[in-house]
Design a protein that fits this description.
The chain is of the alpha/beta class. It has 16 helices and seven strands.
């Protein structure tokens, strides 16, 4: 390599290190700023609550005075001050939750107070916000779609096929049911039509699957014993560091599906998995299932498999879909060649 090329390489590495440090600092500043803001709102809420004896017009007067004193600041409307008071009353007796809610933006906290009454359930959504980076619109969609009921609800054999820590992580990565309400399909559709619709909407599929899923390919060809086999959808999970094989079924679960995806999981482990990768997991997505049948089918399978149902009949308003991240915002593809 020439001296100039070496200098170019070193310069690029230096620039990348600088950018990384700036991004880390910006993130820390944003987190600390949000925590300070939420803490201030909590304290203001306490003051407003402790002076309730001044009557119903008290908050109106406070709002008017604050807007005059701080004309360039937002957040001092009557409505927002009332939310501050509610925020204080909601969390004044629970320091653990106070620290948790301080990590998410104020607008998200308002959505949680309005739409999720159970504080334990709120914790699930706060963890979802922090893990997946949901905006307010996506948070509302997840609440409406019962995210907290779907996480960790699949039928699976993870406990018997994975180490305890891995089992918990994988289990709470898989949902049941998945809601693909952005797909346009007739009442009667075939598996190929379902697959094509999902590929056409892969951005939205990745959002529903959750943060960390990266799309590798569909009808992914593997060669075993001189025969070609095709995996419906293949993903790589960046946080779990493992491949995820997905088979689509447009009907109810059948026991033979467990054997089929078990074969694909084993093949991916033998052919694609690298030393640094964790064992591959399989996920069967079917229109519906009998849980006992699934449990029986998975008992004899020695590779990690989950079985979840899916729904496509629900509806997300078009104006919300348009605000979701673009394909460029998501990592859609892992180049397997680069990992060899």
């Amino acid at each position: 390599m020439s001296e100039n090329n070496m200098l170019d390489k070193d310069f690029k590495e230096i620039i990348n290190n600088i950018k990384e440090e700036i991004q880390k600092t910006q993130y820390k500043v944003a987190i600390e700023s949000n925590i300070n803001l939420i803490s201030m709102y909590f304290r203001l809420g306490k003051i407003l609550n402790d002076n309730y004896e001044y009557g119903n017009k008290f908050i109106d007067e406070v709002s008017r005075d604050l807007k005059i004193e701080f004309p360039n600041s937002t957040g001092f409307s009557v409505r927002n001050l009332k939310y501050m008071k509610k925020f204080y009353l909601e969390y004044k007796d629970d320091e653990e939750v106070q620290q948790l809610v301080a990590q998410v933006p104020w607008g998200h906290n308002i959505v949680l107070m309005e739409k999720v009454k159970d504080k334990e359930v709120r914790k699930v959504y706060i963890e979802g916000i922090l893990k997946n980076g949901w905006g307010r619109n996506m948070l509302s969609i997840q609440i409406d779609n019962g995210y907290h009921l779907r996480i960790g609800a699949s039928n699976n054999n993870f406990e018997n096929t994975l180490p305890a820590l891995d089992s918990d992580l994988v289990n709470y990565t898989i949902k049941d049911p998945y809601i693909f309400d952005f797909l346009s399909l007739q009442n009667e559709y075939k598996e190929k039509e379902l697959e094509n619709a999902m590929i056409n909407k892969i951005r939205d599929v990745l959002i529903e699957l959750g943060k960390g899923f990266s799309f590798v390919g569909n009808q992914y060809k593997i060669n075993v014993g001189g025969q070609e086999f095709f995996i419906d959808l293949l993903f790589y999970h960046l946080e779990l560091r493992r491949y995820v094989v997905v088979e689509l079924k447009a009907n109810s679960f059948k026991p033979e599906y467990a054997g089929q995806i078990g074969f694909y999981v084993t093949a991916v482990d033998e052919i694609l998995k690298k030393e640094q990768d964790n064992p591959t997991i399989g996920l069967v997505l079917c229109k519906d299932k009998d849980r006992l049948t699934v449990d029986y089918s998975l008992k004899s399978i020695n590779v990690p498999i989950g079985v979840s149902s899916f729904e496509i009949e629900k509806y997300i308003p078009k104006d919300i879909l348009e605000k979701l991240p673009t394909e460029e915002d998501l990592n859609l593809h892992i180049d397997i060649e680069d990992e060899e």
